[in-house]
Automatic annotation (TrEMBL):
GO molecular function terms noted in the UniProt entry: electron transfer activity; FMN binding; NAD(P)H dehydrogenase (quinone) activity
Protein name: Flavodoxin family protein
Top-rank taxon: Bacteria
Cytoplasm recorded as keyword: no
Source organism: Thiorhodococcus minor
Keywords: Oxidoreductase
Pfam family, one: Flavodoxin_2
Length: 202
């Protein structure tokens, strides 16, 4: 079984219509450790030793967050700056994260059509996350495309939320039980939408 660490970052969780539910679903999944970064570190005083120990204990690392200005909420950037130290996460002797799986599970306010070269935002969601992908490569991690919900503000009223939460739960269990086709998943623009073809039956 692969232990999974979900690093949840939402500065206003009470106002969240999607991420809060995804965090709750992750917390109910055996084999998954959920960490609410804003709840754990309200003053941004991240305990580097504790976080590095958590990374060592898990084989799958997931950032769960809304897309803020084409990136993560601020505390996730602070976490990266402090925790992914030279000599631990990268560098000649920084091999602690080698082989671990990493990706973002995110929500975006705009429709998927807006995230392409000819769209409003000019880049795909995977392209916008290139800094995270390169971070994963530098740390020797196996990067997967994002698990993304577009038009997140209307997902509840349009009846799309329950299906997304179910796909999220299915993905977590497949990762935990080593039933996800990793090599095939790596080539996709996003994980969801193709899960039925990526997950091997139990």
């Amino acid at each position: 079984m692969r232990p999974i660490l979900v690093l949840y970052a939402h500065p206003s969780p009470d106002r969240s219509e999607v991420n809060r539910h995804l965090a709750e679903a992750a917390g109910r999944t055996p084999g998954v450790t959920l960490l609410d970064l804003y709840g754990e570190y309200p003053d941004y005083g991240i305990d580097v030793d504790r976080e590095q120990a958590r990374l060592l204990e898990h084989e799958v690392i997931i950032f769960l967050h809304p897309l803020y200005w084409y990136s993560t909420p601020a505390i996730l950037k602070e976490w990266q700056d402090l925790v992914l130290e030279h000599g631990f996460a990268y560098g000649t002797e920084g091999t602690a994260l080698h082989g671990k799986l990493f990706f973002s599970a995110l929500t975006a306010g705009g429709p998927e059509l807006a995230y392409r070269a000819e769209g409003f935002h000019h880049f795909s969601i995977r392209e916008l996350l290139n800094p995270l992908e390169q971070t994963a490569h530098l740390c020797g991690m196996v990067y997967l495309p994002p698990f993304a919900l577009f038009s997140a503000r209307t997902a509840l009223e349009e009846g799309r939320l329950d299906r997304h939460i179910q796909e999220w739960s299915d993905l977590l269990k497949a990762l935990r039980d080593d039933r996800l086709d990793i090599s095939r998943a790596q080539k996709l623009p996003k994980l969801n939408g193709e899960l039925a073809n990526l997950i091997r039956k139990e």
